[in-house]
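Q: What changes when phosphoenolpyruvate is included in the input?
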Amino acid sequence: MTVSGIGVSPGIAVGPIRVIVHLSVDEPVSATPQEVFAALNAVADDLERRAETIELEVAKEVLGAQAMIARDPALVEAIGARLTDDISYSDVRPAIAEAFAGFRDALLSLGGYFAERVADLDEIADRTLAVLSGQETTGLRLTEPSIIVAQDLTPADTAALDLNFAKALVVAKGGPTSHTAIVARGLGIPAVVGAEGVMDLADGTRVLVDGREGIVIVDPTESDISGREVREETLRARAASVEGPGRLADQTPIALMANAGNGKDAVAAAAAGAEGIGLFRTELLFLDRDDEPSVDEQVELYRAVFDAMAGRRVVLRTLDAGSDKPVPFINAIHEDNPALGVRGWRLTRSANDVLNRQLDAVAAAAQASAADVWVMAPMIDVPAEAAEFAYRARERGIRHVGVMIETPAAAILADKVLAEVDFGSLGTNDLTQYVMAADRLDSRLSDLTSSWHPAVLRTIGIAASHAKTLARPLGVCGESAANPHLAAILVGLGVTSLSMAPSALAEVRGFLAQVDRATCERVANQVITLSSAEEAEAVALDILGA
Ligand code: PEP
Ligand code: MG
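A: The predicted holo structure follows.
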């Protein structure tokens, strides 16, 4: 039996599972407001103590943030306002739940990274009730190397675990930016999130976790284990043995670049040997901003990335605000269906001046820097949008103007869309969600949101053949570029550069160095004839000898 989810940290681990069951208080809890406030304080003290003792920096930060929420006067006030008489004192659970609900809804409506913090919030409420009802809150004790399984892993769970014994993390919920994913990458252990069904497994069940493929195999056979271990080891060994710019075995250059959100990321990318930044996600700088940054302030922020990449290419993306990345000062209007709404370049409809000012800042920063700055717009759907963007960018002296291809319309009409600009970049995260009509953040749909799906690969192939006819460079900057085997298929489909998290560069470089273009093309042509993502991946691995 196999449970599938989303692989968020590569590697193979085999062992017994230990299931973390969260605290739950099913009986009425009677308390006075003072007792509730004291319990909140005790929870905050406990979280702060754990933050001090845990070594992992990211876990420290989240625990500190949780403690701050538990001490937030607005929360205390909201609970106090609901505890007004003997009836409310006799069971404080509804008052606590309602007070937290307001904060919860606010996080959920922000979406993306913020929505994934809801589990952290829920945990504070659970712990407060546990303190009031005298329950143990110290969590699971590990005594042997184990695979940690949970509905969702909270920072306090992680802080309570002896991470030396954690071989892998598997959670039923969560997404690629959840706490579980961050902690696993920090520890360098495999992790799978969104593995619906994993909580049905009994404590102690022996499983194999493949954090690259995003699967959990129950009672694995020796051949399941050895095949996967060999593949991982080969990827790592090749990664360690190849250096320099990205090349196929026949010396075809494939530029390997990194994705970045700020100057610090760009410095890390340079250290990891990135040939440039293939995707600078500018909206990430402003996710917490209620007001628009001035042009001067923007110039400074963009220059931090450009300057870290002096002499190299930086592909800056204009604000992709909206959907999973709402920016408060630009996405003010509630949308029922934000992924299909006014996001990315479409914001020219409601916030035209903001995008114009961003282009002014980008042009000024590019002018003042020694990086080779290319600029592209996200969510371009039709040729007229590409033409409008190109006009505005060129008018400001920006020399390399491009578009992201992340909708089926843009891919199918790439002959018209790319004719308006100098280059294209396939955003395969969104392209996959739109081709498959499956929300990229919904872990229940993880089987449909694989970029290995032949429907997605054929769409990429259409765009790539148009790019080739027009002699336009076409990169990939979605997560698919970080998978070494899928990267070979993308190259076979005609993609000319790949951009990924800096941590993925070495493995992709190492794998591509031992396949030639003819093999990449042969495998790509074969997998697009198949019917499912699983088949495509299995056939590709087989032919690639991986
Ligand atoms: C993508 O959609 O693949 C992409 C790179 O953009 P983002 O993930 O920021 O939407
Ligand atoms: Mg996108």
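Observations recorded in class: Residues 2-16+145-151+168-198+205-234 form a domain with the Glucose Oxidase; domain 1 fold (CATH 3.50.30.10).
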